[in-house]
Design a protein that fits this description.
globular; 5 helices; five-stranded parallel β-sheet; alpha/beta; about 110 residues; 7 strands; single chain; Oxidized Rhodanese, domain 1
């Protein structure tokens, strides 16, 4: 069974550019609407089943939370569901927004 791996902000950015990684943001809807990584999808209990069924398990998945802690458990869960390459991003969205503010979208952008 594949295991999730931790990934730095820079590694995540490179993986997104080079391999079209899926970014799954597990933060609450209000936080996601206020700001999220460009191209990220909000992942929660309501859409988890559809995400697992409809996402290519061969594409890398980067799981993002607030600070990079909760995403580790969620990433491991996705690895257990058959995703071959799953990462938890260290520092979470908070660090991403600080280091790459130009790569942050809101619900309205």
């Amino acid at each position: 069974m594949p295991a999730m791996q931790r990934i730095s902000l820079e590694q995540a950015r490179n993986l997104m550019a080079a391999r079209d990684a899926v970014v799954a943001d597990i933060r609450d809807p209000q936080s996601f609407a206020a700001g999220h990584m460009l191209g990220a999808v909000m992942l929660n209990n309501a859409n988890l089943h559809d995400f697992v069924l409809n996402t290519d398990t061969q594409r890398p998945v980067i799981v993002v939370c607030y600070h990079g802690v909760s995403s580790q458990g969620a990433a491991q869960y996705l690895a257990e569901q058959g995703f071959n390459e799953v990462y938890s991003m260290d520092g979470g969205f908070t660090a991403w927004a600080q280091d790459y503010p130009e790569q942050v979208a809101t619900q309205y952008t």
